[in-house]
Amino acid sequence: MTTPAVTLPSYDLFSAEAQSDPTPLLHRIRAESPVCWVPELGAYLLTRHADVVAALRDPRLVSGNLTQGLDQLTPAEQAELMPMRKSVELWMGHTNEADHVRFQHLLKRYFTPAMVNGLRPRVREFTDELLDNVAAAGKMDVVEDLAYPLPANIIAEMLGMPITDRERLQAWSRDILSIFLIADADKLRASQRSVLEMQDYLRVLVADRRAEPRDDLLTMFVEAERDGKVTEDEIVANCLLLLFAGHETTANLIANGLVLLFENPDQLALLKSRPELMPSAVEEMMRCDGPAGVISRVSAEPVEIAGHTFPAGDRFYLGLSASNRDPEVFAEPDRFDITRKPNHHMGFSMGATYCLGAALARVETDECLRTVLERHPDLRADYETPDWRPVMPLGHHLDSLAVRF
């Protein structure tokens, strides 16, 4: 277990209560020790909005990555899982800033708001198809039947992945998600198997695009490789990231957003009566229960945060979800208000690490929920309590979400 260089209080972020609803604990941490120690991760957690913003702007804090929990495994387990770690460390957001910017420059024209808005008809078409599949049953599991397959179909189509392979993508992604769980060697072995299988699959697609270029993201990467801008390993790692994050984030935003609406029936009624509020509702869903709980940083040199000086090499988790509930920034931070303005949430991070797929996630969630409520205005929860599963500190996703209509 890593010994902290600066002595600060520690809190149990991994209790059943905190995993189900971290909000009460985050309020307590923010009030008592806005920077605290997380022994399970060998890192410090920042919980104040101002500190998170300052850290994201501080050039002395460089990109870490969310595989740092692997350091808590035994040396033998770490060595066994090194192939997966090497792949993940090539992902955008896990590299140095120059490499991150290099990949963003390649991809940004595919993810601009204008380009993504052009996908709205396709998003609605996929949503209608998925809803048609369950229409006769009068019920569905939102996670399995809608929230996962919808963004998976979109990002796979953008990359040029055959539609017949998209169920494999979902299965791989479920395993890969365990990378972001607290060090559980068995689950991480399953993650590694899926990462390696997915890489082999993607190398075949890359070879195919070299032989037969198409109008898709994979072909763009292959052309960039030909120009010396990227390597094959980088292409494979970042296509894996796009396939994984490109649907995992939106899937959880859709499902978590519906839970928020069910738990706040006044806001659900307001949204049904005023569907033009959907964009604002999506922003509030990101603030209240966005998929990303933290972002990782490492100090490249000594740095002062919240009155404490930390040496080079220390690790930090910037609490995006914690900052989104900071009462210094958000009035009544625990109230879900789809009319909230302004709403300067950190759900997509900011600056150089602002989520490349933010515009796509917004469009997919907007069109999906808009279509669901138009087709099923009587949509209602069919569960007693949400079926949450923990993901890293401060994050939780749904394993299932039963609804009737």
From TrEMBL:
Protein family: Belongs to the cytochrome P450 family.
Keyword Transport (UniProt): no
Residues that span the membrane, as ranges: none
SUPFAM superfamilies cross-referenced by the UniProt entry: Cytochrome P450
Keywords: Heme, Iron, Metal-binding, Monooxygenase, Oxidoreductase
Annotated protein name in UniProt: Cytochrome P450
Taxonomic lineage from the root: Bacteria, Bacillati, Actinomycetota, Actinomycetes, Pseudonocardiales
Alphabetized GO MF terms: heme binding; iron ion binding; monooxygenase activity; oxidoreductase activity, acting on paired donors, with incorporation or reduction of molecular oxygen
Source species: Amycolatopsis saalfeldensis
Function: Involved in the coupling of aromatic side chains of the heptapeptide of vancomycin.
Keyword Magnesium recorded: no
Pathway in which this enzyme or protein is active: Antibiotic biosynthesis; vancomycin biosynthesis
Domain of life: Bacteria
